[in-house]
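In this supplementary section we document a worked example of the pipeline. Step one takes a protein sequence of length 78 as its only input; no multiple sequence alignment statistics are reported here. Step two produces a three-dimensional model, which step three serialises into structure tokens for compact storage. The input and output of this example are shown verbatim.
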Amino acid sequence: MAGELKNLLTAAGFNISEIKNWPQLFENTLIKIKEDKKIYTETINEIKEIVSGKYASAEIQTLEESSAFDIEIIIGAE
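The serialised model returned by step three reads:
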């Protein structure tokens, strides 16, 4: 699943730094974005559109500033 999403995002021009399994299972797919990156609404909307095309309900949440990444996508169980 993550590999397919990586391919879609890469084809759209996004740089994917890492793919790994999340230790906790979520019901819905999460797009976690650092607060200071939320100003890039066009990019966020493009990512959400790509993710929502593959996984029904993608929810945007705030990513901790201590994260090494600007955005994390956690694929949910749906």
